[in-house]
Structures are given as C-alpha cells and as structure tokens.
Amino acid sequence: MTYDKINSEKLLEWFSKNKRELPWRKTKNPYHIWISEVMLQQTQVATVIPYYERFLAQFPTIESLANADADALMKAWEGLGYYARARHLRQAAQTIMREHHGELPKTRKELRKLKGFGAYTSASVASIAFGEDCAAVDGNVLRVFARLYAIPDDLRSPAAKSKIEQLAALNLPKGNAGTYNEALMELGATICLPKNPKCSACPLNDECAAFRQEAVSEYPFKSKKPAVPREEIAVGIVLREGKALIALRPPNGLLGNLWEFPGGKRERGERLEDCCKREVEEETGLKVRVGKRIAVVKHAYSHFKITLHAFLCDWIEGEAQPKSSQEARWVSLDELDRYAFPKANKSVIEVLRRMDKAEPTLFGD
Questions:
Q1: pLDDT tens digits, one per residue of 60-71
Q2: By residue range, what is the domain housing residue 301?
Q3: Residue 198 sits in the same domain as residue 239
Q4: Where are the alpha helices (DSSP H) in the chain?
Q5: What is the pLDDT of residues 241-252, one digit of tens each?
Q6: Residue 37 annotated in active site
Q7: Which of 9, 13, 37, 260 is catalytic?
Q8: Is 314 helix (H, G, I), strand (E, B) or coil?
C-alpha cells in the first residue's frame, strides 16, 4: 500500500508558534540534549525539568558523569524511576571518554553502539543535536501517525511500529529533521492526546484520516496487556544501638545500585512476620525479633506490582553480612537522606520520621 505525504511545513510552522519553552530547547549542547532525551523516556515533562537542571548542575560535563560516584549518581536520579537509565548514562559516558575523546558521536549509527542508546534515543540525539536526517519515533509519534493514516494494526506489534517508522521517514523534511521530530513529539504531547485529543487545534486535521472518518477515538488500536502479577514483600527495619540496617542492591537488574531495607518475597502460605525474619537472616546473617508492622506500601513497576509490608525488628545477634547485596550499613535516621532508595522504601522512611517525632526513643541508643 502506498501513502501520500502530509504537509510537514504546516507542522513546522505550527511548532514554531506553539512550542513550549523548555530548558533543553534553549541549548545546542549535545550532552544536555542527550540527558533530556533520556530523562523524558517514560517521564512527564513537568517532572523532568527540575531533575534536568539539578543533574546538569551536579554533572555539567560528560567527563564529570563518567567519573560520577555511583551513590551520588543514584541519589541525583532518585524519584525519576527506571533507574537503569542512570546506570546506562554513566556507562555510555565512560565509553565516550575512553573511545571518543570525550565527545558524543555525531551519527545515529555510532550512537546506537553506546549503552542505553536504543533506536529512539540515537535518532533523536543525532537529529536534534547534530542535524542528521533520521526520524525519531516514540509513543507520541506512533499515536500521531496511527491517526493521520488510520492505521488499524495493533500498535504493540512490530509490524505496526515498522510501518509508522517508514511513514515518519517518508514525511521527514530533509535538512530539518531535528525540528520535525520535536514538532511531532510536541503535537502528540499537547494536541494529539491519548484521550480527548484537541483535534480542532491540530495543524494537520484536514489531512488526518481518522479525523475525516470521525473515528479518532478508535485509533491507535492497542491489544490488552496481560494481567500484571502482584507480589507480597516483607522488609525488616532492623534496629541496633539507634541505627537501622540498610543494604545496597546489586549493580545490575531492577533497582540496581539503590539502597533498601533487607527483605524479600513471601512464599506460598508463609506468614509475613516469618517471611521478614527468614529474608533478613538469609540476606544479612542476623538473628532478629520481628515486631510490629509499621507500613503497608503498594507500588507498581512496569511488569509487576508489589505490596510491601515493613516491620520493626530488634537485633538479637550476629554481624551484618552482605550475602545478597553489595554492602550492608548501619545508619541513623538522619543519615538515611544521604542514600538513594526505591520509592516504596522512601514511603517507609517517611513513616519512620513520623514515628520518631512521636516517639523520640525509637532511634535512641
């Protein structure tokens, strides 16, 4: 099937008059553009702006990022989620310093070889920072083209994504790819919304097949995601001489290089208190007495959900060993702020702070 081109000039004209004033649009620094593109993955613009500004103040150059302390890096990223992004940033920066004389490669092909540079990120950075003629397709762009061309295919399928990538490339104005990619993303983020799109304000509504068919709400088509499993987690706030035990997760995998309270998954038929005691012993070698439950926190990750149960625990005997972590430390309540924790653990820390105000002896010697 052949497709007609849309009027990309109308899109670019609309963008020039309506684009939001965002800090990464005020720079041509490739490093800054790279950081913004990574932060914007899976994260809303309003959330990203303060992180972007703080991150660049702390790590102003590729070299400073490459040399970043792991704890400092994760603390700077704390709250943004999808923590592998931060680890991949540092790994890519180290490769750039080692193999590219401290400068980002200028082509999509070379960028693609760096850690964390997938098809979208490599195309967006290559086009926006270096002017390469390549289309960058994210979720917003998929939705825009699915409606413009009334594509009935399941948007979760590789075939549908491939078709839209071809359409994005077909409509790309040579020599203006960066602006074109930004304009499409802006259109998807502000006008061609997933729900209640603002079609009357769209510069391409007269070319939109879904709009002409009065069927915008039917596009894009997405098959249902499989049911997301929920896991029960029990963690122990092990107290000893006014300090609590925390452990550093392994460097790779989910929540890598973040600190947490020791604990783990409940086994079938197991009491939560017994799970907490077993997991703390397996992870640290400590013998503990499990006390009262102080918090229940529900949290969703991309492929599963958890309900985290936090218990106060008294240390009985043993020296803490990092059996399933990189390191274990005893820290005071005030010292917890120095470490980066997953969101669910942060909620537990807030409970501890409230308890400490009501009962100051909680962390007393």
A1: 999 999 999 999
A2: 230-363
A3: no
A4: 8-18, 30-39, 45-58, 62-66, 70-77, 84-99, 108-111, 119-130, 139-148, 158-170, 177-190, 209-212, 272-284, 343-358
A5: 989 999 999 988
A6: yes
A7: 37
A8: strand
